[in-house]
Structure of 2-dehydro-3-deoxy-phosphogluconate aldolase:
Amino acid sequence: MSAASRQEKLAAIFKSATVIPVLTIERVEDAVPLARALVAGGVRVLEVTLRTPVAVEAAKAMIAEVPAAIVGIGTILNADDLARASALGAKFGISPGATPELLKAAAASDLPFAPGIATASELMQALAAGFDLLKFFPAEQAGGIKALRALAGPFPNVRVCPTGGIGEVNAAAWLAEPNVVAVGGSWLCTAADIRAGNWAGITAMCQRTLKSLKPA
């Protein structure tokens, strides 16, 4: 698969999502009911972050037992993380930033991948490696929508998935930007709801969010 076709495949996944929940899973046993609750609420594209010791096993369980979910791996920091994501059957990968080594490994991989950027220089490095669909992170802390618009001037064809500081209140404003294909965030399923097993509440939050973000 060419670099361009990988990016288009990822763009199609992100556009279908609108909102991508960023999942930090502490217990493997939460993985499948969480994925089912999200899918029941209309949220099928999921980012499982490599921030906990059980993240890989949690993602494997979701992929095996919740076929309606499109499971990707986030917090990819190096080539080893990228290889693990590919091996477990993830549909895409996302990083919070990108080193030259990671960009090189991602360019050689068949896994659709969105490197993280926050500055023009980082964006240029990602473009040089063949990536024009990027994670803008941390979105609010890196200057918010004004910063994104400033980057869109010299880079009009770059598409982004902003993550960081985005929630129910401001998601619609980000999605209204022409270069935003989806937003990422953790508000759909808070750590407290996951710990409590509040699966019905998570489903309801997903339904409410997607309804509020539908264009008029």
Remarks:
- The beta strands are 19-23, 45-49, 70-74, 93-94, 113-114, 116-117, 133-136, 159-162, 183-185.
- The first strand starts at residue 19 and ends at 23.
- The longest helix spans residues 3-17.
